[in-house]
Amino acid sequence: MRLTKLQFDILSRLRGAQPVDLAQLVADLGVDQSQVAGACAELKAAALLSLDETQDDELTLGEPGAAFVEKPLPERVIIATLAANGGELPLTEIPNHCDLTTGDVGQSLRWLTHRGWATKQGASLKLGDIGPDPAEQPDEALIKALAARGPTRASALRADGLDVAAGLDILSKRKGFVTVRQRTDRTAAITTKGETVLAGADAPKPEVNQLTPEMMADGGWREVEFRPYDVTLAAGAVYPGKEHGFQRTLDKVRRVFLELGFTEVVSPWVESSFWDFDALFQPQDHPARDMQDTFYIAKPDRARLPDEGLVRRVQAAHEDGGDTSSTGWRYRWNGELAHKPVLRTHTTAATIRALAANADKPTGKYFVIGPVFRRETVDYKHLPMFHQVDGIIVDPKASLSSLLGMLTAFYGKMGFPKIRFRPSFFPYTEPSAEVYLYVESRREWMEMGGSGIFRPEVTRPLGVQNRVLAWGLGLERLGMMIHGLKSIGELYFASMPWLREAPLIRG
Amino acid sequence: MPVINMPIDDLLALVNRGGDSVVSADNVSAKLHDMGIEVDEITLTTMYKCGVCGKVVERTEAQGAALNCIACGVDFREKKDSASTIGETHVARLDMLAVRPDIFDVGGMARYMRGFVGAQTGLIEYPVDPPTYRLNVDPQLGRDESFRPSIACAVLRGLRLDDHGIKFLMNLQEDLHWALGRDRKLASIGMYDLDKLGGDVFAYRAVAPDGIRFTPLGFSPNDPGSNMTPGEILKNHKTGEKYARLLQGMTAYPLLQDGQGTVLSMPPIINSESTRVTLDTTQCFVDVTGLAQRTVDRALNIIVTSIREVMPQVRIESVKIAGIEGELTTPNLAPGRMALDVAEARDTIGAALSAAGVRELLERMGHGIDTSSDDTTLQVRVPAWRNDIMHPIDLIEDIAVAFGYENLTAELLPTFSVGAPRQVEELSAIARRVFTGLGFHQVMTLTLTSEPAAFEKWRVEPDPATVRIENPISVEQTIARVGLLPGILETMAINRQYDLPQKLFEVGDCCFVDADAETGARERRHCAAAMIGTHIGYADIRAVMDAFAHELGLSVEMRPIEHASYIRGRVAAVFNSGRRIGTMGELHPAVLENYSLKHAVAAMEVELPVA
User: Fold this and answer.
1) Of A380, A498, B338, B394, which is least surrounded by CB within 10 A?
2) Would the CB atoms of A401 and B467 count as touching at under 8 Å?
3) CATH classification at residue A165
4) Which residues of A touch B521 (CB under 8 A)?
5) B472 and B378 co-located in one domain
6) Claim to verify: residue B304 and residue B357 sit in the same structural domain
């Protein structure tokens, strides 16, 4: 075992000596008591030192006792008075010949008798054989010793030749003269093994806690040892500044799309009904367009429409299919309704805009992440806004099979390797597929998003000839699942502990 | 997605009719799944029959006995003898696609399933007898003040009804009201006992709210006050009140009468009591009224063909209608015709399908293939009850469903492409990195807010560029946010009990009215940060602002301003290359009080300048 400086000093102090009281050791080494105790415990654990416990009384001089350090006890005053007055005086006379009160005299009778210094004969007190100035008594000696040394162990007093038992016999009966407290004393002694280790050890360097600039400057660090710490103990909690947990989920989705070679696009929150609904072949009486479900905008109150040709082609697709080979919805399309601005109800508004803007390109991959708005009453899983991601692929080779392939790759990268598809319906895709993911943490299949191939009624009016794969999903549910949250409100009205403590590794 | 309760025992009986055993109780769920229908659960239910209106109500064990009739509303507890138990049946809760109302009932579903499993493929044709009844439509129904112009009718003969049959008819109507009719708005259905009707020229006309009296369904003709005007029905009848909104603003209401003036119904509100279909009914008159002919035709086609599936002995007879836009005869069960390019189907699905394979899959989905078809183009005859086949792409989806999505080979497109992020998002990520590096925690707050939260609490006038919602759902969300700090302070307010200092930031869009923008508004990316603590002051946020500006390569300049949200003399406007991009300072105690905050807050908010 490599000895620390303190351990070395302790063993050195004990070497060849009798067991040393720990208090003494502390005093001798001039080091903090807790450090000495700790070092002794370590040495004991290594069997280099033995610790022994003894019980002892500690005596402390009380205030009434302290009064007789300089002046004699009343009984000594009384016998001196008796001697000066012929060896005998009536009790009532004594206060007249000394500075004691009648009460002092009365209380002293017990001690005079006990010590055999005087005897009471009727109303008088008669000096005993002891003479006027008896030798110092053990109790008197104890008072003086305690006055000089302060609180002291009985063993130490005895070591000084004091008759502690005899002294206490009297003092303990005199109220408040001396208090006695029982103390546990620990002594340390070096073991044989300790002697051996010590003999083989170099004198260690002094120990320090902190490496200082001065030590670095003057090389003093070479002359010191750094005090070892208990490295199993925790320090105070600190938290790194952090991105919001849901942001990290959004970033992950974004990264996946970029890795898959997609171009990021955007569209305004305030969207025309044209791009939010009409361009996506949602008939104007579709329930999604009800005031019940969609936020309409009072200000601004009118959005501009794209070029007239496009608007006419969209109108034709709705009314009778136009040149899309569709029957259309067979109703009279109202251009005025298309101007009406809404808070976009889905991010497909952004991908359809990207599709229109790039209609002349035979291939393309676009995605958008952003907030969408639905006229939902607030509850634990609904807010009037949430985030969606939408992705589209324009490609002459696009097919339902390649849609499933893309979704498998996308969700695989998102951490969901088990995926299942089911026929579904969306007004603007055909065929359509709903995506189900196996969520390990819940051990169940969960519906995660919709997908499909844009209908010709959607793509042809834009001038897009190739098939367009499209899919989208709401992101809050995914975020809540990743972070184990029960309420969507925990994302938007976040608590400080969650912001500080939610670990990055969860996503 | 609509959830439909399907009586599974009845379904299996129909699917396996004529000695077929193609689907069993054990594999029916799996078969439905293959057909694109999810089975939530199958439960054993008890059927209660309402003694007043005849409606059969199904209740699971967990739901307990029925307390009142969902059709006529009679309270079974008050009238003990008004409900009777008529047996038990297994019911499956099915998660269905809204575009297939033709399979919402047991008849249509059985037809679909028999085709899908190959028991009976190809187009099923139902004979329709020539009309003996006529119906005249009042042109007034084409005008705004009484607009419900479209109607389709049929006569059904040879009905044999038991409680099951009545229940089937009622569910059929309810599901279609919901799925096609959008709760009766676009289509509403009526069925009447033909034996209780007279004359052979019926009338669909508009009447004044007090122009006629009749006893609505659910009232006994003997009850005092049961003979009501249309106006009274809308005010005093339970169903009338419920659907009154559908006639709101009209000055004349649609009414259907037989050749002798007997009222059949007041669409889309209620039928009359006297023409009600009962267990004794053997022939009935059916009507569907609505706003567009396409919808009412489809609804009628679904009704008559589904009834034929369940009751094969029934004869469908057409009705000749003198409509607003001309003569028509309904139901028209002639199939639609559509040409399908086989190569297009193969490429769209991405599976190696032959013409014969495509043909077989289409026939399993109930379509007919004309003999004029060849290997490149199939001439498809589409059932008249399919509401969702508008384009050959819809046939291609049918082929894919019949093929089975699980049988497709998921594959990646070989086309190469390079990912391209948006600059503002890249910049935002850097901005977030700066704040987190400074020990701040990001918050994400709601993008919708209100004027009190965004302006009044901050002691400022509303921003004239605020986007306002026309139909807000709550007073807390009436506008789009124009700043991020209110959300951050809101977050501080709910975190009052936690350790200080707290340092929060948000990077996100705010929305502003902008006449130059195509839609009249545009977003701007904002960055905001705030710190709260015992010793927080202007210098703290100034240091953060400077660090932020430095890292983002901005050359900012602070100019002293007056701002009611901040302490006087401790607020500055932030300029970047001469353009004001934001504000920073120490928040005014009155603002802090509005958030019940007890410590100083220093804050900044700037627009992220995007090059």
Assistant:
1) A380
2) no
3) 1.10.10.10
4) 268-270, 297, 300, 341
5) no
6) no
- Integer Cα distance of A464 and A352 in angstroms: 11
Per-residue tokens: A376: 């939902």
Q: Tell me which residue range forms the domain holding A132.
A: 63-180
What does the alpha-carbon distance between residue A296 and residue A343 come to, in Å, rounded to a whole number?
A: 6
pLDDT score for A154: 87
User: For A221-250, how does the pLDDT look when each residue is reduced to its tens digit (9 = 90+)?
Assistant: 998 888 888 889 998 889 999 999 999 999
In a domain, A91, yes or no: yes
* B5, pLDDT greater than 90: no
Distance CA B509, CA B516 (A): 18
pLDDT of A507 strictly over 60: no
Any residues with CB less than 8 A from the CB of B603 and at least 6 apart, and which?
B485, B488, B489, B528, B529, B530, B531, B541, B584, B585, B586, B587
Residue matched to tokens 């003086």: A144
CB contact, 8 Å: B189 with chain A? no
Count how many Cα atoms sit within 13 Å of the Cα of residue B313 in the half-sphere of its side chain: 6
B408 part of contact set with chain A, CB < 8 Å: yes
- Which domain, by its residues, includes B39? 3-96
Q: Is the pLDDT of residue B73 over 80?
A: no
Averaged pLDDT score across all residues of chain B: 91
Do A454 and A392 touch, CB atoms closer than 8 A? Answer: yes
Q: Which residues of B touch A385 (CB under 8 A)?
A: 446-448
**From the list A260, A341, A364, which residue is nearest B520 (CB)?**
A341
**Where does residue A205 fall: left (phi above 0), alpha (psi -120 to 50 degrees), or beta otherwise?**
beta
Question: What distances in angstroms separate CA B391 from CA A324, B83, B183, one per listed residue?
Answer: 8, 48, 27
Residue B122 falls inside a structural domain: no
Q: Look at residue A491 and tell me if it is in a domain.
A: yes
Backbone angles phi, psi at B457, to 5 degrees: -60, -25
Residue B341, beta-bridge partner list: B377
CB atoms within 10 A of CB A315: 19
User: Pairing mode, if any, of strands A207-208 and A225-226?
Assistant: parallel
Element housing A447 (H / E): strand A444-454
ipTM of the shown complex: 0.87
- Distances in whole angstroms, Cα of residue B593 to Cα of each of A318, B530, B531, B535, B559: 55, 16, 16, 18, 27
Rounded to two decimals, the pTM is: 0.79
Within-domain flag for B117: no
Q: Please indicate, yes or no, whether residues B84 and B134 belong to a single structural domain of this protein.
A: no
B200 and B303 co-located in one domain: yes
**How many other C-beta atoms are found inside a 10 Å radius of the C-beta of residue B534?**
9
- Residues whose CB falls within 8 Å of the CB of residue B251, separated by 6 or more in sequence, listed in order: B145, B146, B208, B209
Q: Distance between CA atoms of B435 and A195, rounded to whole angstroms?
A: 60
Q: What beta strand segments (E) does A289-378 contain?
A: 297-299, 341-343, 364-373
What gap in Å lies between CA A16 and CA A190, rounded to an integer? Answer: 8
Q: Are A381 and A487 found together in one domain?
A: yes
B512 vs B514: CA distance, rounded Å: 6
Domain count, chain A: 2
Question: Is the separation of the CB atoms in A143 and A68 below 8 Å?
Answer: yes
Instruction: Give the Cα separation of B216 and B275 in Å (integer).
Output: 10
Kindly report the nearest CA distance between residue A231 and chain B, in angstroms: 26
Pairing, β B201-207 against β B128-137: parallel
Find chain B residues with C-beta within 8 A of A457's C-beta. 390-391
One domain for residues A252 and A164: no
Task: For B504, name the nearest residue in chain A, comparing CA atoms only.
Answer: A241
CATH assignment of the domain containing B169: 3.50.40.10
What is the reported pLDDT for B27? 87
Q: What is the rounded radius of gyration, in angstroms, for the C-alpha atoms of chain A?
A: 49
* Co-location of A470 and A322 in the same domain: yes
